[in-house]
């Protein structure tokens, strides 16, 4: 889900209300005098026409248009300096002054091999309108039409034209093949094409590995840890020392366990439980003490601050920390003593808090549960720790009920999970169902996060609040909610947008009404898009979606850097060390973490789309029921039932002139008057599937087909 500012600029995804037309052939623009021109820092977003929009963080509602002739070698996702040079109405236009950082290192595409040179036409998703020139000596055995990975060796910023093409200028444009007709129109333009080398010819056997790599690289994640980071991680022997033991509250004799996915390798949270003499219960939320092994400004810390998050793809994980820490030293594995940071509460059966304690602990997990195992114990009341799990589950229900009464929104989205064979090929798609075991862990993590945030919010140093990373979620945009209501009205639904607290209550009521209906997923998805995006910041505005006035991330330091920051600040406060970070430094770390989180989410979605396409490849030619999940001026996106894979029906395949109504997100057949809108049930045929492009091509069928 993109930020609100991105949604104002363009459709973040087919089906959103704002799909503003971008036209590079604008009216004559007013050029600014050189003295008044301003230079901004931003990120390149290419359009199909060849022009680009520069997304500047300090200009969230007004991107800068740069025409192809003014890109000066900049490519999609590059970070650039752009100078505003002219104005066309309210739209400012500019020229790229400098490429500060390249955004993409490897490009996937189709190679075309000619007699004296070759070129790669990158896939649509890169937004490139130029080919990449490949000298014949660098094609590495690739044949015409092969799918390849290509690395740019020279961005050709100075406009060099390779000798091989001087006599054949324009040949690539005429050589477009029919099988490649779905690619964007591109051409070899004099002095504008980067020069590259083929790094891999993509085969069926290598596809999964290549996609894993390119998805991560496309989103700016390095694949390897630097040697100095690995060396530092392996410098720890992991032994519990008597000196450190004295500094911690010892929970090793108290019942402690973990509940995680069956295939999890890193366990960063554990629960301890014991009955108290007064009839209440002590519940400890123990979190891996990553900060113990990662001092400020160490090599591990500097790397983790930049990566900021682990990335979870369908068939693999890119961890934030080396495995020596994430899977060994910091992982709360059963039957091992481990250092933790904990939030410990005295609670009654209704979830009322009587006492709380924060500090460093030493634990020994007695049992590792998979979610499915814990769920069976909860449901049957039989098995290991049945009494403890039963009581913890009842308290969790009370905490959850209280949270929803106070305004928390129940965003219980459907998530696909894939069953893979030994070769990493998807054999089935199952929809992840969240039961009490999942929700139990979630409720105690939420409890720890909000109480730690409240505790730290009251602390000051030199009469100023101590900076730390709040997790905040702004109020929803009323215009987006009005658009959502307009769409929901066709299903006889609406949410009350008169007051913020009424929005949450009526939204939850709507979700209950649509549970199990075909429109549930699309309404949930559009509802989430109408909300703001949660971010990290030192400036607290509360968390609207959860209904909390104070909230932070404390419970997952193995996979999120802000949690490490929270641990450090909490330790400094408890040890009376004052303010650990300057506010500007902490805010910058928050900004990096928010951006990296967005990139990781995009990578995870890309991974799911790839696996869905790989799964649907064996169903080419088959017919399915579906629900229209997205509408754009170039086609309809359809969620295929029952596996929730998404494909597209191009407008041009509908066979007659079609009009797109942006306000109602509807396509109309101009002559027959037939219309198509979000949530509508349709019958489709799987025409073609391209896993490496993450695309499923559909054909619309008659309802009785």
Structural class: alpha+beta
Unreliable residue runs: 1-35, 168-190
Q: How much beta, percentage-wise?
A: 25-35%
**Neighbour order of strands in the largest sheet:** 12-19-18-15-14-13-20
Oligomer: single chain
Main beta sheet strand tally, sense and closure: 7 strands, mixed
Relative helix content: 25-40%
* Span of the ends, CA to CA: 35 Å
**Rg from alpha-carbon coordinates:** 27 Å
What keyword list fits this structure?
17 helices; OB fold (Dihydrolipoamide Acetyltransferase, E2P); alpha+beta; 705 residues; single chain; 5 domains; seven-stranded mixed sheet; six-stranded antiparallel sheet; disordered N terminus
Task: Explain this structure.
This protein has a 7-stranded mixed β-sheet. Strands 1, 2, 3, 4, 5 and 6 form a 6-stranded antiparallel β-sheet that branches. The protein has 5 domains: 4-101, OB fold (Dihydrolipoamide Acetyltransferase, E2P); 106-202, OB fold (Dihydrolipoamide Acetyltransferase, E2P) (Beta Barrel), CATH 2.40.50; 227-474 and 534-603, no CATH class; 478-531, no CATH class; 620-701, Nucleic acid-binding proteins (OB fold (Dihydrolipoamide Acetyltransferase, E2P), Beta Barrel), CATH 2.40.50. The two termini are 35 Å apart. Helix 4 (207-218) runs antiparallel to helix 17, helix 11 crosses helix 12 (436-457) and helix 13 (478-488) runs antiparallel to helix 15 (520-529). 28% of the residues lie in helices and 28% in strands.
